[in-house]
Amino acid sequence: MRLLHFGDTGRLTLEDFSGRIIPPYAILSHRWGDDEVIFEDLKDDRYKNKTGYRKIEFCVEQAAQDRLQHFWIDTCCIDKWNRHELSKAINSMFRWYRNATKCYVFLSDVSVSTAIDARLQSTWEASFRASKWFTRGWTLQELIAPESVQFFSSEGHLLGDKRFLEQLVHEITSIPVTALQGCSLGNFSIADRMAWAETRETKEPEDSVYCLLGLLDVVMPISYDEGKEKALERLQNELEAARTTPSILPFSRNSHYIGRELQLAELEAKLFRDRQTTMIAITGVGGTGKSQLALELAYRTKSENKNCLVFWIDASDIDSLHQAYSNIAQKLGVSGWDDETADIKLLVKHYLSRESARQWLLIFDNADDVNLGSTGLSTPHSANLVDYLPQSELGSIVFTTTNSDTARTLAVQTTIELQMMTPDSAQRMLENYLNTSVPTSEKQEMQLLVKELSYLPLAIVQAAAYINHENITLKDYRSQLVNQKEGALELSSELPEGKLQDCDTRIPVNTTLLISLEQIGHNHPLAARYLFLAACVDRKDIPLDLLRAASPRDSESERESAVGILNAYALITRRPAESSLDIHRLVHFAIRKGLEKRELLGQCTQKAIRRLLKLFPDHKHGSRSKWRRLLPHAIYALSYGLNEKEDEDRTKLTWKCAMTLYSDGRYNESEELIGRVMETHKTKRGADDLDTLISMDSLASNYRNQGRWEEAEELQTQVVETIKRVQGLEDPSTLTSMANLALIYRNQGRWKKAEELFIQVLEAEKRVLGLEHPSTLTSMANLALTYDSQGRWKEAEELQVQVIDTRKRLLGLEHPDTLSSINNLALVYRDQGRWKEAEELQMQVMNTCNLALTYRSQGRWKEAEELQVQKMETTKRVLGLEHPSTLGSMHNLALAYGNQGRWKEAEGLVVQVVETCKRVLRPDHPLTLDSMANLASIYHGQGRWKEAEELEVKVMETRVVGPDHPSTLTSMNNLASIYRHQGRHKEAEELQVQVMDTRKRVLGPEHHQTLTSMNNLALTYKGQRRWKEAEELEVQGIETSKKVLGPDHPHTLSSIGNLAWTYGNQGRQKEAEELLVQVLDTRKRVLGPEHPSTLSSMAKLAWTVKRRGRDREALELMAACHDARIKTLGPMDPVTQAASKALVKWRGATTDSSAC
After folding, report:
1. Distances from the Cα of 516 to the Cα of 124, 600, 715, 867, angstroms
2. Secondary structure letter of residue 255 according to DSSP
3. pLDDT tens across 173-193, in order?
């Protein structure tokens, strides 16, 4: 659920509370006007010019009086481009109104001039009684659901509340007073509740049914354009299903269905056999009736097995799959179905796989590929269908597919291939689809017609649609068929390679299509324009808004009529719930070929590009749902005529697509489009043109996000040098390019160069733009992060505090930039070991990822894990499974598992991340290599030294960032650690000396990473029993660490603990004990008594005390340590188990000693 908030700065913000506790809020009830503020308007301040903004102002003022910080308005809190969100919102509406603290009814047709008049009921009662608000369908639940309903005039004056005006409202609506008073709706019959809405009106006919869902406690998918009758039928079915077995079949049973009885019998015989999940694939070329066969099977199973769950799933892409699984989860009441952060597909899979689940049949329609791509709604890449198939001996799955390879992969057991229909079945099918029965005298004509149509179901349906619409005889239609045969042959002669088997199906489809197109072209030009536009974009999920953009001067009724014509001729399939349509692939191909023959395809594609450009939003996150749906259409349109001369519209749309792909983390695809725009600008405008330089800058940023540092640096340097010369040193675009180059230096670990450039940019921005300009503040934040990377935490903290204070004052506390600054300051605190301060800040901004890392630093593994899971599920939902941010979240969750010694879970997750990174990002991408290094450390934690070594060596060899880069040095250090654990001390020492010397030179002798290197080298010396050398290094490191980091910093304490261990190994147990007591006391004070590091110090102290002969004291210490570890880490944690073994041994030794 999203809520509006009006901040201190006077800016309206929209907050998403998915997966979070929803605060108290007010909710508006009103009638929609002509100029409402909608979801997309909130991206800029232009919405304030709209008439509907008056309602928002009213809500702001009234909510403030009621001390409510948030409010909800249906016009702008729902992203109607997000199909799943719209359906879910309509099903959740009753609950949202019921849970609201206040409901404000804004009566635009009731006017009172003053607040005093508002108190006099006689001045407004007549207009109140006549208000159209009481005649609208949706306002019924808005009146009944909330506890507190207040009525306001159009001027915002309070007229009274529901309780005070209940008798008047009862007289107007005939709703019982007890219902208005909040009596449970279960006390009123379904017929009574439906009667309350009987005379109410809605703009869309289906809404007269949908507005009843909450009142009747029904959840069902929303399907606009299905008509009131169909919606009412589905509602009745849902009410009936509440008393019987749930099912979802989005299509009505085909009353015209004929034939395929043998295949139906075979399918029915194979369902629910052999005490395992039955997998069956129905294959065949397009148009042979696979889906209709599966639909008839579903209805027969539902009819014959009353206890069987039957669900229909569109498997054509991952978005359709997600929508279908969401509907199933709702229908079955699967726990977590309404949790935005949950993976709905896995929830359904696990639910149906349980032994307690009843018998079920799933139909996966259009499963042409195991790897499902995306149309762009909720996941930008792909997923494997197999991963979401439930397994149960009570279940059966049927797939329909045109791909025989996919059929063999999904259904190893059984594949049923559909051949052409028999002549007799084809004739019966045609007769069933015709509006009038065929007289005996025309039976022979019918035989000839179905033969001409090759007995193909799709062609028969189109022929029948035409005959019905034009009211002609079979003979007349066959005559037209013969006339179009030559044209159909021409269209079918240019089949793509590997598709020749489709020839027999394409000729009849093309013939029927040409007949229909000729008629539509003559009599319905708008419908023809729509069809030609649809042929120039992707054939699936074509938004009706895109078609409407092609006819801005036509009325809504003319547009609807045009779509209705295409539907009547069976040329499209409507997707009512998404307000979009599909075209069968054979029809889509044929129309394109027809346009190409007439040399019109280029012209039509250009028109499509112009329409898309008008509709396509910018790449901001708030527009994500819209551009993800339009992106496949834009990419498809742009793919035609790539070798032709680029025009401005094509270039602009290409740029928009490139930026949206970039925002989605699809860098490879984005790179290609940015490069295309860059070359176009170079050719048309020259290398020094600002647009050329901006595209080059974007390409360099794309390289940077892929970890291709050298290419990024080379291109960015070129941009900076050119833009300095062309625009001047202090032009904002010059400064932006310089800042981007500094970011590249920082990614390369070249802190000094990055720092110098950031300072140069910052000083210029202060001078040119001012201290409080957003770009100046961004540069200050970047410089602070650069200081942080160098361990210069005081300087970083001062800058971040300055940025936060300025942003709070200018933007408000809740602006994303302010929250980002607060989070950055929290990271600086965390790096200094100031975890409590870091935690407080991160709780304030609720940055789940970094708060989880802070918990991890505090040893709060379970809390860290919970937050990492939450972060991962959120990024999966919002950005997609394969977005870099999602992969990063999975990577961090794996680290949380590793910290708890849950190696198998960690390994499984990281292997998944590595494989996905290799496929989506490239094998040498930094995230891929970091994940591989993490996998190596998991092998390390399990003592699988050989595998760890091989992987770490591969990571080192693959990294192309140079020998001085922090990542290279980290890999060398990890490899040295593996060598040390294998007893290969000489090899470990060589690597660690090299790492330490490089870090001293690059980062300085006092950098915390340099100190870590000294500590690691000391560990290697100790492994060789070179105690003195180890001691010298550790003493040196401790002194520096105390000076730079402070005596209480975790790194300082860890170094002191290591020195104590060195003393112990030299027999200097007294000095060791003194140091360990110091470390333990400090850690108890700073970290808390149950932090893993505190318990580690306690265990080391116990061992030291034992070595000094104080067995009972050592046993007490180790027992206390063991109990605390069980409490905080759990009994299965490896460290806890090691402590358990030591404790058992010590207790045995102490008992033996006592006996003596």
Report:
1. 58, 19, 54, 58
2. T
3. 999 999 998 888 888 888 889
Q: What is the DSSP string of 713-782?
A: HHHHHHHHHHHHHHH-TT-HHHHHHHHHHHHHHHHTT-HHHHHHHHHHHHHHHHHHT-TTSHHHHHHHHH
Rounded Cα distance, 59 and 65, in Å: 10
- Output the pLDDT for position 36: 85
Percent of the chain exceeding pLDDT 90 equals 20
**CB-CB contact of 800 with 779 (8 Å):** no
Tokens of 674: 């940015």
> Which DSSP helix (H) or strand (E) runs through 282?
strand 278-283
Decide if 783 contacts 762 (C-beta within 8 A): yes
Dist. CA 906–CA 865, nearest whole Å:
11
Contacts of 119 (CB under 8 A, 6+ apart): none
Distance CA 495, CA 593 (A): 10
Taking the C-alpha atoms of residue 41 and residue 796, their distance in angstroms, rounded to an integer, is 37
Q: What SS3 state is found at 110?
A: coil
The torsion defined by the Cα of 427, 432, 434 and 438, in degrees rounded to 10, comes to 60
Q: How far is residue 76's CA from residue 27's CA, in Å, rounded to a whole number? A: 12
- Residue 731: partners with Cβ closer than 8 Å, 6 or more residues away: 723
Q: Any idea what DSSP says for residue 145?
A: S
**Of residues 918, 942, 943, the one with CA closest to residue 932:** 918
Go through 519-539 and write b for each residue having 16 or more CB atoms within 10 A of its CB, e for each that does not. bbeeebebbbbbbbbbbbbbb
Place of tokens 């590929």: 369
User: Residue 833's pLDDT is what?
Assistant: 60
Residue 700 and residue 719 in contact, taking contact as beta carbons nearer than 8 Å: yes
Please indicate, yes or no, whether the overall pTM of this predicted structure exceeds 0.90.
no
Name residue, tokens 């903290």: 797
d(CA 22, CA 42): 21
**Distance of alpha carbon 784 from alpha carbon 800, whole angstroms:** 6
Q: Would you list the DSSP string of 352-410? A: HHSTTS--EEEEEET---SEE---SSS-SS-EEGGGG----TTEEEEEEES-HHHHHHH
Q: Identify the residue whose tokens are 């010694």.
A: 901
Taking 3-state DSSP, the helix, strand and coil percentages for the chain, each rounded to the nearest 5, stand at 65, 5, 30
Give, to the nearest 10 degrees, the angle between helix 648-663 and helix 667-685: 150
Long-range contacts of residues 216-222, Cβ cutoff 8 Å, at least 24 apart: 216/190, 217/185, 218/242, 219/91, 219/330, 219/331, 220/91, 220/331, 221/87, 221/248, 221/250, 221/327, 221/577, 222/86, 222/87, 222/90, 222/91, 222/577
> Which tokens hold the place of 825?
């300051």
Bridging pattern class, strands 247-248 and 360-365? unpaired
* Closest-CA residue to 816 (of 3, 11, 2): 11
Q: Is the pLDDT of residue 196 over 60?
A: yes
Instruction: State the amino acid at position 924 in one-letter form.
Output: D
Query: Which has the closest alpha carbon to 607: 514, 658, 555, 537?
Result: 537
pLDDT mean across residues, the chain: 81
Rg over CA atoms, the chain: 35
Write down the H helix ranges in 569-666: 585-597, 601-615, 624-638, 648-663
List, for residues 88-147, the tens digit of each pLDDT value: 888 889 989 998 999 999 999 999 888 777 788 888 999 999 999 999 999 999 999 999
Residues 6 or more apart in contact with residue 138 via CB below 8 angstroms: 93, 202, 207, 211
Tokens of 334: 């699967």
Which residue ranges form the domains of the chain, and what is each CATH number? 2-202 (no CATH), 244-417 (3.40.50.300), 424-608 (no CATH), 1075-1156 (1.25.40.10)
